């Protein structure tokens, strides 16, 4: 166990089982449709890589990178696009893949933004959901796990760009934040 970890919330095995289930559900729902999976960098990288291999229908992929203006809890809700999609998405069925939905500000922005480009449909798949923190009433269409209001890392999620590579989702020791 890594020295910085207080507690593992979700093991690698639990996560993989859930991703298989999500992949099966998405495959059934999008059967016969032209599906574009859009990963939100960097947090969704690990989940996206697993999810597209669990989806059993042909997909194409693209990525966006966004950052919120303001700091953490004081975020204004404005989102800045750091990297946009490579191609137009008119008439495509888009599935946004995000690591976590917390306040909902990021996903709310992305949904509005992609819908305004004339996509045929835009849905959201997250691996983690912290519903207690929501400021915008938005629910992912697909979600892996509802988690408590704790700051988590691993499976793509970082603290100061670290710990994304942990294969599990964990709560950090308090001293990691305070040192
Ligand atoms: P929202 O816009 O829903 O408030 O925030 C979504 C973003 O905040 C996520 O994509 C993620 O980057 C970050 N975030 C929210 N909760 C956590 C958490 O518990 N751990 C980490 N590492 N990032 C989080
Ligand atoms: Mg994210
Ligand atoms: Mg982050």
From TrEMBL:
Species this protein is from? Heliorestis convoluta
Enumerate the subcellular locations listed in this protein's record, separating them with semicolons: Cytoplasm
Pathway where this protein functions: Purine metabolism; GMP biosynthesis via salvage pathway; GMP from guanine: step 1/1; Purine metabolism; IMP biosynthesis via salvage pathway; IMP from hypoxanthine: step 1/1
**Xref: CDD domains:** PRTases_typeI
Per the record, the similarity remark reads: Belongs to the purine/pyrimidine phosphoribosyltransferase family.
Q: Provide the protein name.
A: Hypoxanthine phosphoribosyltransferase
Q: Name one GO molecular function term.
A: guanine phosphoribosyltransferase activity
Matching entries from SUPFAM superfamilies are given as: PRTase-like
Phosphoribosyltransferase domain sequence ranges = 14-159
Q: Which cofactor does it need?
A: Mg(2+)
Record has Glycosyltransferase as a keyword:
yes
Purpose of the protein: Purine salvage pathway enzyme that catalyzes the transfer of the ribosyl-5-phosphate group from 5-phospho-alpha-D-ribose 1-diphosphate (PRPP) to the N9 position of the 6-oxopurines hypoxanthine and guanine to form the corresponding ribonucleotides IMP (inosine 5'-monophosphate) and GMP (guanosine 5'-monophosphate), with the release of PPi.
């Amino acid at each position: 166990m890594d020295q910085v970890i207080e507690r593992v919330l979700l093991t690698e095995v639990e996560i993989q089982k859930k991703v298989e289930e999500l992949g099966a559900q998405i495959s059934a729902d999008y059967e016969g449709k032209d599906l574009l999976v859009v990963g939100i960098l960097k947090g969704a990288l690990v989940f996206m890589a697993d999810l597209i291999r669990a989806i059993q229908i042909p997909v194409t992929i693209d990525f966006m990178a966004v950052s919120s203006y303001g700091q953490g809890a004081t975020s204004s809700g404005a989102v800045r696009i750091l990297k946009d999609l490579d191609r137009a998405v008119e008439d495509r069925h888009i599935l946004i893949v995000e690591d976590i939905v917390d306040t909902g500000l990021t996903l709310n922005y992305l949904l509005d933004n992609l819908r305004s480009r004339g996509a045929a449909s835009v849905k959201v798949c997250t691996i983690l959901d912290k519903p207690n923190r929501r400021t915008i009433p938005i629910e992912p269409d697909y979600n892996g796990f509802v988690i408590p209001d704790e700051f988590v890392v691993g499976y793509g999620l970082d603290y100061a760009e670290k710990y994304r590579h942990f294969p599990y989702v964990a709560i950090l020791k308090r001293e990691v934040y305070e040192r």
